[in-house]
Amino acid sequence: MTTVHDLTTPALLVDVDALDANLADMAAALPGPRLRPHVKAHKTTALAARQAAIGHAGFTCATVREVEGMAAAGLGEDLLLANEVLDARRLGVLDARVTLAIDSEETLRAAVDGGVREVLVDVNVGLPRCGIAPSRAGWLADRARAAGLTVRGVMGYEGHLMMLDDVAERGRLTQECMERLLAAHADVGGEIVSGGGTGTYALNTWVTEVQAGSYALMDTAYTAAGIPFRQALTVLGTVISVTAPAGETPGWAVADVGLKALGMDHGNPAVPGAQVWFCSDEHLTFAPDAPVAVGDRVRVVPAHVDPTMALHERVHPVRGDEVLDTWAVDLRGW
Ligand code: PLP
Ligand code: MN
After folding, report:
1. 4-11+229-328 placed in CATH 1.10.10.10
2. Local structure of 84: helix, strand or coil
3. pTM exceeds 0.90 for this model
4. Architecture of domain 16-217
5. In what residue span(s) does the D-serine dehydratase-like domain sit (predicted)?
6. What is the mean pLDDT of each run of 10 residues along the chain (334 residues)?
7. C-alpha distances in angstroms, 27 versus 32, 119, 254, 287?
8. Complex ipTM, two decimals?
């Protein structure tokens, strides 16, 4: 039996029972095609296959590489690239159903030139990022149809609302955003209204499919926002230094899980039973509640799951201390 003590650290662990509970809870809330899981959160086809096995056949991707990897893994039944690209040539050649978001004549041209046949019109619903103005969406859909593309509908991502503390306010503003998206949809047509994420999955009742991704693995930022899924992802580290001899409570201890092993844009990670002080490149300095010794293992909970996954080549599904398998984080890179 391989245990976590056999792993070289830092090592990414996923608690499979917590993962499967998250997948089951979400599938109960949003069964089958009501959820189009976003793979950017985990970048791991082995994990996407688990989502497909419980009924979610369509997936959301953020990069061309993610679409390619999903197609190569046989998970290409219905892939949405929910992002703008100016070079779609790697998409048109795939053995998969690929739908591409467009928000301009340039991205529409890229879809045509790349051999992509189906698109969604990406609508700006309030997040200052991608998406065409709602009033212009019908015009772009007409242009796309004139160019021979199938327009499957609209998408609009209310990403600025995901972590609003006040849940009632999060719901009210989600409605405002989705009214903009539905107004655009009336002009665009098509069957799909795609949007939402882990922060609004239970609030956004206007879309036909929710693009949530982080729910599967979770992080401390979404837990702080009151999202009820379990923290399945940790980074296993080793205590490499303490400030006091064994047996005395140290002032602080240091583990080998630095910011090169963690997505830090949502703040410091958490270490259960300890106060985290700070991270540097290869170090995590923390004050443990109970004494720790050099060589002890710690499990560090990331504040942001997506960039954490993108830093690691592999993730180990575990049950307790037992390492069950090794999954490649095979959708990394560009
Ligand atoms: N849809 C799009 C276009 C996104 O960019 C994201 C995340 O940033 C999501 C959906 C939802 O992701 P999550 O469930 O991780 O919040
Ligand atoms: Mn994220």
Report:
1. no
2. coil
3. yes
4. Alpha-Beta Barrel (3.20)
5. 232-319
6. 97 98 98 98 98 98 98 98 98 98 98 98 98 98 98 98 97 98 98 98 98 98 97 98 75 96 98 98 96 96 98 98 98 97
7. 7, 26, 39, 39
8. 0.99
Amino acid making up residue 93? V
Residue 198 CA: which ligand 1 atom is closest? 14
Helix (H, G, I), strand (E, B) or coil at 18: helix
Interstrand relation of 78-81 and 98-102 (parallel, antiparallel or unpaired): parallel
Cβ–ligand 1 distance for 194 under 6 Å, the answer no
- Comma-separated ranges of CATH 2.40.37.20 domains in the chain: 4-11+229-328
Could you identify the atom of ligand 1 that is nearest to the CA of residue 214?
Answer: 15
Residue whose CA is at the smallest distance from ligand 1 atom 1: 211
Cβ of 211 less than 6 Å from ligand 1: yes
Distance between CA atoms of residues 324 and 24, nearest Å: 20
Best probe residue, ligand 1, of 42, 211, 227 (max atoms within 8 Å of C-beta): 211
Which residue has the CA at smallest separation from atom 6 of ligand 1? 197
The predicted pLDDT at position 10 comes to: 98
User: How far away, in angstroms, is 113 Cα from ligand 2 center?
Assistant: 31
